[in-house]
Amino acid sequence: MLSSHAVPVDQLSASATESQDAMPSSPSITSTDTAQAQSVDERIYFTGSGKEYFRIWIVNLCLSLLTLGVYSAWAKVRRLKYFDQNTVYAGAVFNFHGRPEVILRGRIISVIFLFFYHYVYGLSKMSAILIAVALLFMLPLMLRGALRFRLQNTSYRGIRFQFHGSRMRAYLVYLPVVVIFLLPGLVTALYPRRTTLLIYAFLPYLSWPWLYAGMKRYQNGNFAYGRLRSATTLGWTSFVWPFVAAVLVMLLAVFIIGLVAGVTVSGSKIFAKDNVAFASVLMAILGGVATAYIVYLILGPALQISLWNRLWNSTSLQGVQIQSGLPMQAYVKLQTKNFFLTILSLGLYRPFAVVAAYRFRLEHMQLTVASFEAAGAAADGQRSTSTADASADMFGFDLSW
Questions:
Q1: pTM
Q2: What's the rounded Cα separation, in Å, for the pair 167 and 171?
């Protein structure tokens, strides 16, 4: 349960998840197990392979296309089960128990909201206001439901994870995020000729580092494994400097590329006027490619690494310390390789790239268990499994694809 890009991956549920089905024995924990769990200091690792996942991925892709996306819910269950049941910690694996029908329901609701937002939103001012109010009311609850669904359908040693974040807290955390994403569209619908207002509508995006930190504090500070509750020391300003540094590097790269392009075009004027147009087009293309490379293949992974390490190094459970030491240079190199091989293979390398990145993240994470309280956690988790399962299926949503 450790991950990303993902709601799961950010909840100690996406990067490491368990398998009851793969376990030969009962999940009950004896006193011997308790004694062995007193000083576990091991890394999480992945036993799957890109070749195995490719077979799952290609079948999922074909069936999803043939069913116009309906099978994608079943495809996601197969994918999560594969990754979770091949994620190992301390000799045991994780598992995902979610039902595809619940995932499909969440996606249908999401598609309905998207339809109204894209095709009904701009019909009239009243429709825009009504849809915006509905989204403001529903989306925080749906995002909270997605967290509950993912965690309550994830287990380790037969014990389900839980999410205890309140509805009120969900509104406090997610409502500002929903507002800043809806504001530009709402301003455009209400004041289509006031372009100045549209510029101001994008200014709240500057608060994204604080909003992102608030979401992660809510997610990582409210999950539990049995009786073990999570806690986070992540501050509201923890993500400000990584975002600021990324923006400054991007602006510097754009400035340098623009300067080189300007010098090249000016130099071409000295030798031949006919070269000016060609040089301008060529430098525009090269500059665009270089900027995309810097932003997507260097700044993107570098920012992910910084946020990931800060997030998990400030998160813990009672008696369980989580450590993440993802190296920036190696991860950027891996993602660059994955990008070019995926492009050259016309997308067929994608499953191999996903497995490689997932394994890399897990290899650089470590759980240090000082006092796991295994017997108490197991008993509490076993009693709550059926209730949690029913609650997750009834009230849970899954918004990710």
A1: 0.78
A2: 6
